[in-house]
Amino acid sequence: MKRPALYSAAKPARSDPPPAAVATAARTAMPNLPAAKLPVPPGRARSFALRHDRALLLFGGMLIALGLFVVRDQMRPTGRELSQDDIDAAVLHTLDTKTLPSRATKAAALVMPSVVRVRGYDEDDEPGAGERMNGVGSGVVIVDNGTILTNLHVVTGAKRMSVTFFDGTESEVDVIRVYPENDLAVIKAKKLPDDLQPATLGSTAHLQSGDEVVAVGFPFGIGPSTSAGVVSGLDREFRSREGKRILTGLIQFDAAANPGNSGGPLITMSGEVVGIVTAILNPTGPTFAGIGFAATIESAGGAVGVPPF
Questions:
Q1: DSSP structure class, residue 145
Q2: Of 114, 162, 171, 183, which is the active-site residue?
Q3: How far apart are the first and last CA of the chain?
C-alpha cells in the first residue's frame, strides 16, 4: 500500500544574508545616511593590517625617527654668533701663544730651493798638483733646465766651474752668455737634481726706497745664508775697485752682503727676484759696512730670450 509523504511541521531555518548584501540593503533603505555611519563589515581593518603589516611597521618607524630628530633639535642649545671682539681676542691669543715666521723667513723659503753655490777652479800646471779654488759665489736658477744667473766676476778667470744645488747635487757648468756692462753671466748645469725649482722673477717697476728686501747667498762660502734689509736707493752707480768698470742703474740696499754673496738673488717679501747682488761699498776692507748694490733683473733682458723678466 502506498504511503503518503510526510512533511515536518517546523518552519525551515532562514540563513543570514552575506555582509555585502547587508551593506547594500542598508544603503538602499537609508540613502541619506553618511558613508561613515554605514555598517562596516567586521574584520576588514584587521584584514588590511595583516596584508600590509611590513609597510605599516616601516611607516611607523619613520614617524618615530622623525619625532626623535625634532626633539633633539629642540633640545640643542642655540649657537651664539661671533662678534668682532671675539675675533680680535682670538687673534691676540694666537699672537701671544704662537711664534709666527717673519716676512723675511717666508720670502727666503720661497727662493731658497733655487739658490746655488758657484765655485771656480784654477788648473795647476804642475803634474799631480790638482786644482785650486779660484773663488766662490752664488747664483740663482731661472729656468728648470739648469739655466743659472750669476755675476760675471764670479766666473771670470776660472778654468773649471761647478755648482751645488739646494739638495746637495753637484754639477759642472758651461758659460752660456755674458753681460759685461752689467757684470752678469748666464751659466748652465750639466747635471740636474730631481724637481729643480726655478725662482720667480719679478720687476723693479714699482720698487721704492724703504721696501723690504732679502739677500740670499753664500758669504765666505757659508750658507745658504739670509740677511734682511730695505732698499736704500735706486738707479745708483758703482765703480769697481780696480776702476775698470762702471755699473749703472743699480739697486742700493742695506741687507748684509759679503764676498760670496755676489751672484745671489735680492728678493722682495713676495719671494720674487728683483736683483742680483753685485758689489759692496766699503773703503776700509772687504767686509760689509751697510751699502750693497744689485743689478736689476731687467738688466739681463735677453738672458733666457724672454725679456723682460
A1: T
A2: 183
A3: 144
Please name the amino acid found at residue 273. Answer: V
pLDDT average, residue stretch 216-231: 93
> From CA 278, how far away is CA 293, in angstroms rounded?
6
Whole-angstrom distance, CA of residue 166 vs CA of residue 168: 6
Whether 262 is catalytic? yes
183 is catalytic: yes
What DSSP character marks residue 201? B
Which pLDDT score, from 0 to 100, does residue 47 have? 73
**Residue 239: which residues within 8 A CB-CB, separation 6 or more?**
245, 246, 247
Kindly report whether the global pTM for this prediction surpasses the value 0.70.
no
Cβ atoms < 10 Å from Cβ of 108: 23
Residue among 162, 227, 262, 299 flagged as catalytic: 262
* pLDDT per residue as tens digits for the range 173-184: 999 988 888 889
Question: Which domains are assigned to the chain?
Answer: 110-300 (2.40.10.120)
Pairing outcome for strands 131-143 and 246-253: unpaired
The catalytically annotated residue of 138, 153, 227, 254 is 153
Indicate the average pLDDT of the chain: 80
124 part of the active site: no
CA angle centred on 24, ends 20 and 30, rounded to 5°: 145
Asked whether 249 and 296 are in contact (CB, 8 A), the reply is yes
CA dihedral of residues 28, 30, 31, 33 (deg, nearest 10): -140
